[in-house]
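Field reference: sequence -> structure
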Amino acid sequence: MLKSMTGPVNAVFLIAVMLVSSVAHAQSRWSDAAPLPSPRQEIYAITYNGMIYTAGGIADGASAVRNEFNAFDPRKDLWLELSDLPAPRHHITLSALDGAIYAVGGFSGGFPNWKPETSAYAYDLEGGEWKTLPALPVARGEHVSVTAAGKIYVIGGRVGETPNAAHYKDHRDTSRVDVFDPNTQTWSRGTDAPTARNSAASAVIGDKIYVVGGRQYLGQPNGDAANVNVASLEVFNTKTGLWSRKAPMPKAAGGIAATALDGRLYVFGGEQWTPTKEVFANGWVYDPSADAWESLPDMKTPRHGAAAGGIAGRIFVFGGATETGAGDVAVNEVLAVQP
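Structure field:
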């Protein structure tokens, strides 16, 4: 009798858990935290040892390129100003490993004169100084980077059609993966991702790298090109060296912010350029064990190009822009989430 009831009991239990989770998320609310020291967009963040770090960005209508490097202490609700980046950058990605923050690639120049860079730096958290690392094999921006299996993985983004490409329209999307080994101080080719895209988001859960959302710069029927959002979620298993596709986001979005917390992937905001221009306030959480997405409360401020970090049951989403391509803000909003 017990054996025959196992399936129904498990099904009822799963439905109950999903309902409890939905109610808990519905009861969660966004609140305000200390804003960034200055408004900026097209930033990324990394959470490391109880702090959230962010660097660079663009401001003033996407015309000014920033070099600030900041750390947010969620316990004190306080931003710290650290040593500036060696050079101004936007879309520069951050990763952390063994007491250092790695800042890789990104663009120099205000829109539309975006030049992808090969620069890579490491910030010694104890010494408080930047060190120049061997250059990226290929200049790129609007990529993602993560730390996994003791190495820095740089995935996707946009690269120049020519070596000296310095205009947004001179770039193309890539699925290329480059891997930096801090022990040997060398770059190597990784296994390319299934999808070429830019402005995606990423996070690491266990031994797997999650890359989600973003967009592709594609030709349109009228002969122009436009950024078309994608919803796909692709996962790289660092143990097997293989990519797999998982359940896509409920809504395709580019310029999103993401972070991992308690074994789940959280994604926020984003924008679209076609068929209409729109900036999103949506929040989503992905459960790898169920391969399923669930909605979260909307952010108070719809934004794209923001950054996110999760610590101790709270997720902070800061910076970004409130208009497609413009409207940079210093807003920092926090959401308490259920484990």
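Note: Residues 1-24 have pLDDT under 50 and may be disordered.
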